[in-house]
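Q: Sequence in, structure out?
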Amino acid sequence: MGVTKRHIHSTQANMIADLAKIFSHPARVAIIDYIGDCDGCLCQDISDKIRLSQPTTSQHLQVIKKAGILKSYFKGKSQYYSIDVLKWEQVQELFNGFFNVTKAKCC
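A: Exactly. Output:
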């Protein structure tokens, strides 16, 4: 595997790239879409809804959670997932700022 050169890019560019990984897989997009309608969702319920195995769903949940978009809590032995609304708003602001076409970026 090659050497990563993340250090030569801005913090913002690295953050956007990390977040873009979440949206680069249709299963993760489906998970976020489904969880967005829930106050707390079990992995098995998410798995059933998006029609993937529970272990695969769990792996995708961990990628999304690592980015900070999800929060989770335990109720007994069950772990429930929900969108971290504050982080989600920050993500929206980050992408909106980046894709703001009224900014003059070149020339």
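The first strand starts at residue 41 and ends at 42.
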